[in-house]
Design brief:
- Its EC number is 4.1.1.37.
- Keywords: Cytoplasm, Decarboxylase, Lyase, Porphyrin biosynthesis.
- Pathway: Porphyrin-containing compound metabolism; protoporphyrin-IX biosynthesis; coproporphyrinogen-III from 5-aminolevulinate: step 4/4.
- It is found in: Cytoplasm.
- With 342 residues, the protein is α/β, with parallel strands linked by helices.
- The protein has one domain: TIM Barrel, CATH 3.20.20.
- The strands form two sheets. It has a seven-stranded parallel β-sheet with strand order 1-4-5-6-7-8-9. The protein has a two-stranded antiparallel ribbon with strand order 2-3.
- Strand 5, helix 11 and strand 6 form a beta-alpha-beta unit.
- Bound molecules: coproporphyrinogen III (CP3).
- The site of coproporphyrinogen III has 21 residues, from strand 3 and strand 4.
């Protein structure tokens, strides 16, 4: 028996008050985050400096007492560890070298060398597992292979993931080789995070909703199954949260086919439907609209209580449907916690 409420919810327990944390809870909406990021130099310097990455992970825990801390890092560190060039231009988002042909793919490194690049991240996890309050659960994470592939193929964020869809239709063999390489690297990366002290891991498939339906099984479900099978071989008891964002009706097949202990849902899913269709299968995490963290006040309180109530009959972790945005007001997080915790 544990007193960590996140672990209890992921074990299937229905709690009177759902535990709560927020996607991107360490981020630009917090002045102390902006100060530490400034001190680090750039965003990637922050990710690769364990003491500072641990510091920004802890900031929202100190300020709000969330039930979980999520490791501060980024899903695009895995492509970098595989040999892609990566930079974050101020105000422009990520830029990477592209993988659009068998020749481009051949320039990537194999999985064996990834820990050389990623070892500072494991050090961040080790620091956090010592410094977090005993009731706070430490969540590690990685991008799911499809979502990571969309950035590696396009070399940047795209509104419609067009370059990745084009490669999948036009050169399925190269696309699958890339997907399989990321799958293998991601399994190794998450296992190393758990070895270092992560108590839960989350797979972010942010662009699962952009994938043509017939590819969902091979490109979203299968890689998640493989990653979790590899984790289970080493760490049979570590809970996994899956987030196939935008999957629509695919959420149910994902929850049935993949050995997850938690399913994060985006804002498009009706909480009542999630309670009927998804909560009997697994713990549901979500799904307040991040816009309400900008607006605050009664609309925030009303909607938070509605979600809490709708999902109160089964295991639930309260969260947003996507990351908190830089224009959110830090005081609105206090309003949210009061509405959820009473
Ligand atoms: O607090 C946390 O949630 C933990 C840290 C975390 C970050 N990114 C830090 C970050 C996590 C879990 C991520 C995941 C991530 N990164 C995803 C999946 C989740 C999602 O939002 O859909 C994706 C797609 C990325 C890739 C990425 N990282 C992009 C497209 C960008 C630029 C857009 C932006 O918001 O600026 C980032 C940068 C990034 N990752 C920031 C943070 C706090 C902002 C960088 C800054 O400080 O300027």
């Amino acid at each position: 028996m544990t007193d960590k409420t996140i672990l209890r919810a992921l074990a299937g327990e229905t709690l009177p008050t759902p535990p709560v944390w927020l996607m991107r809870q360490a981020g630009r909406y917090l002045p102390e985050y902006r100060a530490t990021r400034e001190k680090a130099g750039g965003f990637l310097d922050l990710c690769y400096t364990p003491e500072l990455a641990a510091e920004v992970t802890l900031q929202p825990i100190r300020r709000y007492g969330f039930d979980a801390a999520i490791l501060f890092a980024d899903i695009l560190l895995v492509p970098q560890a595989l040999g892609a060039d990566l930079a974050f231009e101020a105000g422009e988002g990520p830029r990477l070298s592209t993988v659009q042909s068998a020749e481009d793919f051949a320039r990537l490194r194999g999985v064996d060398g990834i820990h050389d690049t990623l070892s500072p991240i494991y050090e961040t996890v080790r620091i956090l597992s010592k410094e977090l309050p005993r009731e706070t659960t430490l969540i590690g994470f990685a991008g799911a292979p499809w979502t990571v592939a969309t950035y590696m193929i396009a070399g940047r964020g795209t509104p419609d993931q067009g370059p990745a869809r084009r490669l999948a239709y036009g050169d399925w063999e190269t696309f699958l080789r890339l997907l399989d390489l990321i799958t293998e690297a991601t399994a190794e990366y998450l296992i190393a995070q758990i070895d270092a002290g992560a108590e839960v891991v989350k797979l972010f498939d942010s662009w699962a909703g952009a994938l043509p339906g017939p590819m969902f099984e091979r490109v979203v479900i299968q890689p998640a199954q493989r990653i979790i099978a590899a984790i289970r071989a080493r760490h049979p008891d570590t809970p996994v949260i899956g987030f196939p964002r935008g999957a629509g009706v695919g959420y149910k097949s994902y929850a049935q086919a993949v050995d997850i202990q938690g399913l994060a849902i985006d804002t498009s899913v009706q909480p009542q439907i999630a309670a009927q269709e998804l909560q009997p299968l697994t713990c549901v995490q979500g799904n307040l609209d991040p816009m309400l963290m900008v607006l605050g006040g009664d609309p925030l309180r009303r909607e938070a209580r509605r979600i809490k109530e709708a999902l109160s009959g089964g295991p639930h972790i309260f969260n947003l449907g996507h990351g908190i945005t830089p224009d959110a007001d830090p005081a609105h997080v206090d309003q949210l916690l009061e509405a959820v915790r009473g």
